[in-house]
Amino acid sequence: xxxxxxxxxxxxxxxxxxxxxxxxxxIKSAALALSEQDESAAKRAIExxxxxxxxxxxxxxxxxxxxxxQQPVAGDLRLISAALKMITDxxxxxxxxxxxxxxxxxxxxxxxxxxxxxxxQMAMRVIEMVxxxxxxxxxxxxxxARGIFKLDDAVDELFRTVKNELVELIRRDASNSEQxxxxxxxxxxxxxxxxxxxxxxxxxxxxxxxxxxxGEKE
Length: 218
Prior knowledge:
With 218 residues, the protein is mainly alpha-helical. It has a single domain (2-209), classed as Phosphate transport system protein phou homolog 2, domain 2 (Methane Monooxygenase Hydroxylase, Chain G, domain 1), CATH 1.20.58. 85% of the residues lie in helices and 0% in strands. The radius of gyration is 19 Å and the shape is elongated.
């Protein structure tokens, strides 16, 4: 019985890794669409949202099957509970990558009002956070999970920089306002992706220690 359970837990790891890979691809596609004004990359990010949603249903179904059929206890129960929380955050990351892509499609053909410097940096950081948080789950590495929290601080600082620069552009020339607001929204979506990646890392830590960063205990 335990052998079958272990096999299903391994499948859960694999399915979560697949969802994480799809999510990472969606962010990368949105980032490429932003930096290169690549319409096909933007459309791919939107397509990937549907694939992420489908993968969420697969993982959720397996988690519920494990809970109902295997009646896990202690660490196994924490792991499955954490996986259910993580897929919610991954699904939302997919939504936000698609939201970024939709804004970029709306901006297609326009010249940017400022060089794309800090927004691509935000994209790189959040990709690192998402990849790292999933890797921490698969490797059962609480130290790696905690390292994600520091990256979120860097993303928050980049968001403040982007917002301040764009607000200043609006102040100088109101004709920049419409695109500036769109770019601020893109920055906000990247910041939210970072928040969701941190949530994932927190649930990884909970799955391993029984203690959540917010102070919740098993």
